[in-house]
Amino acid sequence: MFYRPENGHGLPHNPFNAIVTPRPIGWISTRDADGRDNLAPYSFFNGVAYVPPQVMFASTGVKDDVDGTKDSVANIRQTGVFCVNIVEYAAREAMNLSSATLPHDADEFAHAQVEKAGCDVIDCARVANAPASLECRMTQIVKIEGAANFVVFGEVVGVHLRDDCVVDGRFDVTQYEPLSRLGYRDYTRVREVFEIIRPDD
């Protein structure tokens, strides 16, 4: 099968989301200029550089009560900071609840019954029991093709690691089983890992 996206795929559901998988989920917490907290999951998320450490996430939709984007991007435009919270399998239901479309002034932490904690470097809330949280200063917001598609880049300025996830000096993802997005309504979790040594190592 071959198709051009501009002409449609002819399938019952869009296969694109199922092709680029698995995708890590960035549970993005932000705070607006009035001090109201927001929490939302984004599966267009990844790390993009080591030195300095940098991450990105993409927002691809719009809300009626926000000008041309979603709450997360609107808040980051105001404050210049955000926090990426890593989602574990045990938090899958709360993560899903936080994806609900709520009024701009609603607190998704409260809606999803997620305990919040303060960040150390930036003025933002974080998910208190997340396996890891990355405090970020926004470096740029890039408008990409599409009516409401924005990519947010941030430099990681603070890192929280849950103590039980650090084993023998390594951050061990099998201790919490990262939740990852597949296509359609499908998800998966990481339960096992294997090592491959690069030729130059």
Molecular structure report:
This protein has helices at residues 16-19, 71-79, 92-97, 108-111, and strands at 23-24, 26-31, 37-42, 45-49, 54-59, 81-86, 116-118, 125-127, 132-143, 150-161, 166-167, 170-171, 179-181, 187-189. The longest helix is centred in the middle third of the chain and has 9 residues, at 71-79. The protein is globular, with a radius of gyration of 17 Å. It contains four helices and 14 strands. The strands form four sheets. Strands 3-2-6-9-10-5-4 form a seven-stranded antiparallel sheet, covered by helices on one side. Strands 1-13-14 form a three-stranded antiparallel sheet, with no helix packed on it. Strands 7-8 form a two-stranded antiparallel ribbon. It has a single domain (22-189), classed as Roll (Pnp Oxidase, Chain A), CATH 2.30.110.10. Helix content is 11%, strand content 35%. The protein is mainly beta and 201 residues long. A hairpin with a 4-residue loop joins strand 4 and strand 5 (54-59). The mean pLDDT is 96.
Précis, in short:
With 201 residues, the chain is mainly β. The chain has four helices and 14 strands.
CATH class: Mainly Beta
SSE order, as H and E?
Answer: HEEEEEHEHHEEEEEEEE
CATH superfamily descriptor: Electron Transport, Fmn-binding Protein, Chain A
What is the mean predicted local confidence, pLDDT?
Answer: 96
Low-confidence stretches: none
The SS-based structural class is mainly beta
CATH-assigned fold name: Pnp Oxidase, Chain A
How much helicity do the residues have? Answer: 10-25%
Biggest beta-sheet profile: 7 strands, antiparallel
Mind telling me which CATH architecture this is?
A: Roll
The overall number of domains is: 1
Kindly state the number of beta strands.
14
| Rg, Å, rounded | 17 Å
Tally of helical segments: 4
- The fraction of residues assigned to DSSP E strands is 35-45%
Spatial sequence of strands, sheet with the most strands? 3-2-6-9-10-5-4
> What is the terminal-to-terminal distance?
40 Å
Global morphology: globular
